[in-house]
Write a structure and sequence with these properties.
- 25% of the residues lie in helices and 15% in strands.
- It is globular, with a radius of gyration of 16 Å.
- The chain starts with 8 loop residues before the first strand and ends in an 8-residue tail after the last helix.
Length: 88
């Protein structure tokens, strides 16, 4: 009997930055099945190979706006009040 191979599926986790700005965009996805506890997040602009937890850390460290990380600009004052270094 031949083993059955699982098919791979893209699971949409969230809209991407463009879609959130009401511009035709895409999604942040993970490829399933994935045995990893921290799968690679696909579609994260400017972050090839970033994992889901790394992306969450960037979001927390930038006041909920992970898009500030790759541009290297300082956070605006309102975001500085929300940003902190995550302990996960």
């Amino acid at each position: 009997m031949m083993p059955v191979l699982a098919s791979l599926h893209y699971f949409d986790l969230a809209p991407d930055e463009l879609h959130k700005a009401d511009i035709s965009g895409g999604t942040h996805d993970v490829l399933l099945p994935d045995a990893s506890a921290d799968p690679v997040l696909l579609g994260a602009r400017g972050r090839p190979g970033v994992t889901f937890v790394e992306y969450l850390r960037a979001a927390v460290a930038h006041g909920g706006f992970p898009g500030w990380e790759p541009n290297g600009l300082p956070l605006p004052e309102p975001l500085r009040a929300l940003a902190f270094t995550p302990d996960f």
